[in-house]
Amino acid sequence: MASTVLTPSDCSSPSHSNIITPRIRLPSVKPHKQFLIWASILLIFTVFFDTNIMAQSSFKQYLRSLRWTPLPVGVGLTLIAFQQYRHTRKREAARLGQLQPSDCLAEQWEVEAYKLLPLRYFSRAWGWMTNLELPEWSRRSVLGLYVKSFGCNMNEAEVEDLNKYTCLGDLFRRSLKAGVRPVDISAEVVSPADGKVLAFGTVDKGHLEQIKGVTYPLRRFFGPNCWTFGGPTLVEKDTDECYQNTCVTNPKNDLYQCIIYLAPGDYHRFHSSANWNVTFRRHFPGELLSVNPSIAAWINDLFVLNERACYMGHWKHGFFSMTAVGATNVGSIKVHCDEELITNQRKWRKEDFTDKHFDKSSAFSRGTEFGEFNLGSTIVLVFEAPKGTKVCVEPGQKVKVGQALFRIPETFVGKTSLERVSSGPQM
How does the record describe its quaternary structure (predicted)? Predict the structure, then answer.
């Protein structure tokens, strides 16, 4: 910007007494318009980057070798929104048979760009905000807005009056009235939480199903097996299928899995799914990416990347495990039998994890409260059961705590004669 500077001698001169210094002014642009301009530039660059430059494998390798730096939140969210739009179109094309499901997954550079967002710091800030005490006069309006936005059923809550909740975090972690979540005694494995079933069934060749058409390896999700016999388990070959065999103690059994996604409006405490004993815990301080079903269908190995607390033990049929997976704004995971667990730490090392062996195994029965999330997230069940175990749910079905997930044939403890005949999905 250029400007004219007048000295005192110039100002005293008659020839300059009536001269006004001209100033160049740039047109003012409102902040939201500036954001739209930069977002448009970023989108144009992304399209060019994806269609032209990223086609060169050597340039891809060069980019992966660079040291990444954090992106501004607004730029990163714009990039995610654009990539999610492209992903939605690809999923629709795959549904019509125009693309293969594998073509809908995010590329490695897209995942790395997503991981650049300061989601861990954002989650810590969100946790701090949700624990701020609200003035009593504002609780009904602030908390009521959240209840209406996410469809929380306060009629089931032990405390229905919103004025009794001092902060938003108390509402997240609300307890329920006694008896509103009866446990189905006809099923040996029941739902640990309120949520939506994303995947279920047997583990296939050492791979778990993240969502329909997207899988991830069991050995990367659990890490080295050092809990089965109290030490590292030796396998004949370092393969996913051999790793699966280390989790099965009885050759007559299969390894089963079930994934339940907790939405923000759901009940945020989780309970024990079966009668079992916890003997071991492994904590992975990973990323805090979103576990929304749309993101789970876009990012491969999502649950392997995210922070998680895996609890292993045994039940009467063999191996049993329940894993609480963290997500964006869900950095806080609390487990009642494990006070040493600290999640969402400021600093952590990639591919690092901590183990804990329980001196005395903690026994849990079906429906017993196990822990809580600060906001909705995901529970992953992996357990050993006899072959032919019946699944009692369907894909995308909403389930409640204590609802039947799996029934084992020829185990009729607590069943009525009608339930023995009809063992189909519980709707």
Answer: Heterodimer of a large membrane-associated beta subunit and a small pyruvoyl-containing alpha subunit.
**Is 301 part of the annotated catalytic residue set?**
no
pLDDT by residue (tens digit) across 159-187?
Answer: 999 999 998 888 888 999 988 999 998 89
In a domain, 146, yes or no: yes
Together in a domain, 110 and 126: no
* 311 located within any domain: yes
Number of neighbouring beta carbons within 10 Å of residue 52:
10
**In terms of domains, do 215 and 338 share one?**
yes
- 193 near 266, Cβ under 8 Å? yes
Per the annotation, the verdict on 207 as an active-site residue is no
140 and 96 inside one domain: no
3 burial via Cβ count (<10 Å: 0-12, 13-18, 19+):
exposed
State the residue range of the domain holding 413.
189-421
- Identify the active-site residue in 207, 271, 283, 314: 271
Domain count, the chain: 3
15 found inside a domain: no
- Catalytic residue, candidates 184, 194, 266, 338: 194
**Residue 87 bears catalytic tag:** no
Tell me what the mean pLDDT of segment 372-377 comes to. Answer: 82
Taking the whole predicted model, whether its pTM rises above 0.90 is answered as no
